[in-house]
Amino acid sequence: MRWTLETTIDIAAPPDRVWDILVDLPRYGAWNPLAARMEGPLEVGAVLDMTVRLGRHTRRQPADVFAVGPGHLLIWSGHSLKGLAVRGVRSQWLTPTPGGCRYTSREVFTGPLAGLTRRLLRSTLDAGLQEMAVALRDRAEAGARAAA
To answer: Binning pLDDT at 50, 70 and 90, where does residue 144 land?
Structure first.
């Protein structure tokens, strides 16, 4: 089974400001409603230690870093049982726009338990991705206003 969640939001802040927030993993807990904690080197082949908020619950899981395109692209994969049960590959990218940038986050779930994950967590995960996008926008735009 395979299913996808995606969210996009326009941000009135320069892409480099948004990028700096996205790659500042130690501060995720201060602003990110979906990822309470992220630790580890943000480099291809590294394994991040993340704690994800799923509604009222938190879940600690590893995330394998697949791609880091400085200034515009992050791809990592969270998984259960080394990806044998379910794997979520999360791509986040920035596209410059007049007056700022567009942030897009897409997560593709695969594996034998992907269907169960969809039934149990789709609305929670979808809300989490949207809340994260809004929090990222708000943090970046507040920083842009403060810098102006």
So the answer is: low
